[in-house]
Amino acid sequence: MSMSRNLIIASLVLNVFLAGALAGGAVWIRNGKSGQGYFLEAAGGRLPEQDRTTFRKALREVRRESRQVILDGQQARREAADLLQQPVLDTTALSAALERARNADVTVRARLEQRIVEYAAAGSAEGRRALAEGLMRRGGQQPSATPKKSP
Predict the structure, then answer these.
(1) Is residue 21 a part of any domain in this protein?
(2) How many other C-beta atoms can be found within 10 angstroms of the C-beta atom of residue 123?
(3) Of 14-18, 31-35, 53-57, which range is least confident?
(4) Are 51 and 127 in contact (CB under 8 A)?
(5) What is the pLDDT of residues 130-151, one digit of tens each?
(6) Which domain holds residue 61?
(7) Residue 118: inside a domain
(8) Can you tell me the distance from the alpha carbon of 66 to that of 56, in angstroms, rounded to the nearest whole number?
(9) Superkingdom, according to UniProt (predicted)?
(10) What 3-state DSSP class applies to 88?
C-alpha cells in the first residue's frame, strides 16, 4: 500500500510540474518574442535601438559569466526529475535537488538584476524612463504621467 501511495504522490508532483511547464509555454507562445525573459529583461525592449543593443549585450555577458551556475541548476532539475521517476520517492533528496535548482535560479537572477541596476545608474534619465515604462507595461499597469519626486 505504501508503494502505491508513493507512486501516486510522485505522479501528482510530476503532473504539477508538467502543468506549469505547459502553462508557461502557452504564455510564451501567446506573447511571442516580446514576452521572452522576465520582466526586467523585457523592459529593455522600450529602449532606443542602440541602447537596447547595449542592454542586451550586458545581459548576455552575465549569462555567459553565470554559465556554470546555469548548468548546475539544470543538472539539479534533471536529478529532481530522475528522483520523481524512482519507484520509492526520496523526499529528502528531491527537496535538496529542487533547492539547488532554486538557488541557481536566484543567483542568476540576482546577477542579472545587479547588471540592470549598473546599466540604469550609468544611463540617461531618458533610458531609465524607457525602462520604467517597460516595467509598468509588463506589470500590467500604465505608466504615470508625471514622475514621482524623491524625498
Answers:
(1) no
(2) 17
(3) 31-35
(4) yes
(5) 888 877 765 555 445 455 555 5
(6) 37-133
(7) yes
(8) 15
(9) Bacteria
(10) coil
